[in-house]
Amino acid sequence: MNIFRLPAIKSTFVFSNKQHQTPCHSPYLPVGKTSLFTKYISYLFFDLSTLPKEQVISSAMLKIYFNAPPCKGDPPALLGIQALAKPFEDCYTNYTSKPPMLAKTLKRVPLRKNGCSISVDITTLVKAWHAGKLMNSGLALVPVELETCGVLLFHSSNTPDHSRHPLLIVTTEPSKTNCYERKEYFSVGKRAGFSSTQEVWSYSIYSFIVANIGSKNTLVKLQASPNQINFMDEEPEIELRPGQIRVFVSNFFTRYNRLTFRLASQESGTGRIKIWLQARV
């Protein structure tokens, strides 16, 4: 398990009664509505590039800290958190140019009456960003209780106290890949024998491993097929002495593979081999 603590790398806010005014490097983020029907919306952005792509996100918590005082007017009971469809820029974005939000991502968060911060589970959203299913343009903190005339005040990414910057805490786990293994044993004679035909085109990677577990030198060759009927040899044919082991990997993309084997020309009697197919879906 790995835990990543990602501070917001930019933030800003916009307000409706001065639609062309552009806040810049604000130390606080207001969210809510005043008695003059001025609406305040704030924005946050977290850089996820440090999260390893091969890791699976198990949780993601947004933590934002209240300013002092935490609210002007009547404190609302709910806060809205919503994903942005397009990016914002501090010192450039204003109410007129504010980015659109993704409607289906709105999360209504109940607010406690006491406490210096709030934590919100946004795992589903961060997973979508991390997987590339949604573009990470940032988050909006929006008023959702318009009957209340109150503006919440949070610390921004420009607050001098870095310990109060908005924070995204992401927990990851190693990815669990689906692996497949098949083992077979065969006696080897003068006439060519064949392993089971394996359908391999759904595997992301695979190998055949052959061990000579008998006392006779054995010739082994990989074969490829589109239909389990017509097989093509893949050169070279490898001679395995007793105790030797060798990996066989196809050079072609075909639906089916198998191995063919026989005793070396100087040998007589019966040999013995073990074959593994090891694959990852």
TrEMBL record:
Major place of residence: secreted
UniProt-recorded name of the protein: Uncharacterized protein
InterPro entries reported in the protein's UniProt record: CBM96 (IPR055372), DUF6385 (IPR045965)
Keywords noted in UniProt: Secreted, Signal
Subcellular location: Secreted
Single GO cellular component term: extracellular region
Domain Carbohydrate-binding module family: 5-171
Source organism superkingdom: Bacteria
Domain DUF6385: residue ranges: 202-280
